[in-house]
Amino acid sequence: MKIFSNPNRPHDHNPLNTSLPSYWQETVFRRPSDLIIIGAGLTGLCCAFHYLQQYPENTVTILEKGPYPSGASVKNAGFACFGSAGELLADMAHEDKNAVLKRVEKRIKGLEGLRNIVPDDAMDFREKGGFELFTDQEAYHRVFGHLSHLNASLARTTGTDTTFEPASINGYQAILCRKEGVLHSGKLVKKLIQTVLELGARLITGADVVSVTSGKVYLKNETTPLVTGNTIVATNGYTSSLFPDSKIKPARGYVLVTQPLSKLQWRHSFHYYKGFVYFRNVGNRLLIGGARHLDPITENTSQDGINPSIKSWLMHFVNHILKIEEGWRIDYEWTGIMGFGEKKDPLSAEIEKNVFILGGYSGMGVSMAFESARELVSKIGNYHEPD
């Protein structure tokens, strides 16, 4: 059912309060929505896409706090997020094997869905495989010993008997993952924004949401709420700022990119130590990030800021393990806030009537957001007018 009126909005009747919206604002920028989505990252944009595909006559408003998306969707390392052999085996040691395999299947399906609406060249997508690097013989043989079983378990999902295979690169033992890929996260999000706007969504930037209740979304410095049928909170690692009791917790990740190098021998995507460290080339630059396992307590935060011990460790890794040219310098560095749940599967739930949250991808949102959004939208259904 479409919304045709603004039901019983609370008003501040203080005549001196100048923040009350005008008629012009109410009838254009603040008109009621069938669905409000908080967050213009991958999750929010994918939710908008699926909802408008299912209900093309309905209205969708996407609210973004900053002037442009600024969460993990555009502050990641640009990996397609399949998962290394060491990481998958570590997951299987802590949870049911079938749950891990189902999650891999969801990653593959989600990435395929993204590629169906965002052409590969529009997001610089390349699926040339990636390597898991080992500097420890015991760790390598521990993973290598499970490759046959892991490949057999993944064969139906990946369509190949050799998803993983032993390799060597630049003097190190490695395990090649045929399904790993890389992309340009900024271009991906930009194209998704263009796509959902063409479908009819509204995007409002500078919209700092301070609270959410059933049917209402309150913005900072706004007297009256925005009215909506359903609300999706797609803020991932920032979810606890709106719902402190949410099981989605923040986790900070650090990434640096070097200045262009005259010669770079690391020209694929790479993982190290169960996926906690990741690096790749961006043209002739080296991008490297992660290592949050070195100080997990400090990094369980939604505050941006560079942890000097993690930065120092990664620079040492570049100098002594990757051994790129001497005198290299950092050109870009940043931190992004990921969302982690109790398990690695994303959390999708109705947190109160007609208010839904989706997030907690444990660093795998690039490949999982599209399919997770589809599943959530299929459960929400059409607008249910409040009592």
Number of E-state strands = 16
Please tally the helical runs, counting DSSP H or I stretches of 4 or more residues: 10
Q: Identify the overall geometry.
A: globular
Compute the CA-based radius of gyration: 22 Å
Pfam families: DAO (PF01266)
EC number: 1.-.-.-
Enzyme class: oxidoreductase
Protein name: NAD(P)/FAD-dependent oxidoreductase
Task: Tell me about this structure.
The strands form two sheets. Strands 1, 2, 6, 7, 8, 9, 15 and 16 form an eight-stranded mixed β-sheet that branches. Strands 4-5-3-11-12-13-10-14 form an eight-stranded mixed β-sheet. It has ten helices and 16 strands. By secondary structure, it is of the alpha/beta class. Among the domains are: 30-74 and 185-247 and 343-380, FAD/NAD(P)-binding domain, CATH 3.50.50; 249-340, D-Amino Acid Oxidase, subunit A, domain 2 (D-Amino Acid Oxidase, Chain A, domain 2), CATH 3.30.9. Helix 2 runs parallel beside helix 10 (365-380) and helix 4 packs across helix 6 (147-158). Its EC number is 1.-.-.-.
Keywords:
387 residues, FAD/NAD(P)-binding domain, D-Amino Acid Oxidase, Chain A, domain 2, 8-stranded mixed sheet
